[in-house]
Amino acid sequence: MSIVLTFEKVIKDKGINEKEIAEKLGAIVDLPRIEAGNVRAIRFTTLDALCVELDCQPGDILFHAANK
C-alpha cells in the first residue's frame, strides 16, 4: 500500500504558499513533514483543517498509488 501526498501541488495550484497555511493553521499541522511526505499518519482534524483552508477535498491532498 502506498498513500501519496500531493499537498505541495495543491497549494501551488491554489496560489497559496506554505507560510500562509502555517500562519492560518498554527500548531495544528506539522507542515514541513507533510510537504516532504514524511508522515506515517495524519489526523482527521489536520486533514479537515487543510481542506477548509485550501477549499479542497481529502482526495485532492492524498491518493492511493497501487503497487504493480
TrEMBL record:
Domain HTH cro/C1-type: 9-62
SUPFAM superfamilies in the cross-refs: lambda repressor-like DNA-binding domains (SSF47413)
Pfam families named in the record: HTH_26
Top-level taxonomic group: Bacteria
PANTHER family documented for this protein: DNA-BINDING PROTEIN, DNA-BINDING PROTEIN-RELATED
The protein's name in its UniProt record: Helix-turn-helix domain-containing protein
Source organism of the structure: Gordonibacter faecis
The organism's taxonomic lineage, starting at the top: Bacteria, Bacillati, Actinomycetota, Coriobacteriia, Eggerthellales
